[in-house]
Amino acid sequence: MDDFLKIHGALYDETRVKILKFLLLSGAACVCELQASFNMIQSRLSRHLKILKEAGFVESTRKGKWCYYSIKENLDSYRACELDQIKILDIEIPKPTKECSI
Q1: How far apart are CA 101 and CA 98, in angstroms?
Q2: Can you tell me whether residue 39 is helix, strand or coil?
Q3: Which helix (DSSP H) or strand (DSSP E) does residue 70 occupy?
Q4: What is the tens place of the pLDDT at every residue in 47-86?
Q5: What whole-number distance in Å separates Cα of residue 43 and Cα of residue 10?
Q6: Residue 75 and residue 3 in contact, taking contact as beta carbons nearer than 8 Å
Q7: pLDDT at res. 102
């Protein structure tokens, strides 16, 4: 039951759904890229990413001093199905930017 509620809690936020679609379309992104693309302060973005990670949708990888987030590999069928639905949602997401503000 906990897993089910984490998944739905994570998806019950427009910003988090947009972050997932962004990562689905653009691949791995550095926190600073996400921050610049979404025009969001780092602490708020980190909270969203933490919730998505705890719900099992994203994973992080460290490369030097940078942290990259991407859609988790080998998702279970339920999470994969949810991401398939997000992929076809008609929502506007920001264009990826390589500008880092950090």
Answers
A1: 10
A2: coil
A3: strand 66-71
A4: 999 999 999 999 999 988 889 999 999 999 999 999 999 9
A5: 17
A6: no
A7: 46
Q: What is the dihedral of CA 83, 85, 90, 91, to 10 degrees?
A: -30
Task: State which amino acid sits at residue 45.
Answer: L
Enumerate long-range contacts of 7-14, CB under 8 Å, 24 or more apart: 7/55, 7/56, 7/57, 7/78, 7/79, 7/82, 9/51, 9/55, 10/51, 10/52, 10/54, 10/55, 10/57, 11/55, 11/82, 11/86, 13/48, 13/51, 14/91
Q: Where are the domains of the chain?
A: 2-88
Tell me which fold the domain 2-88 belongs to. Answer: Arc Repressor Mutant, subunit A (1.10.10)
Lookup result for tokens 């503000």: 101
Neighbours of 52 (CB within 10 A): 24
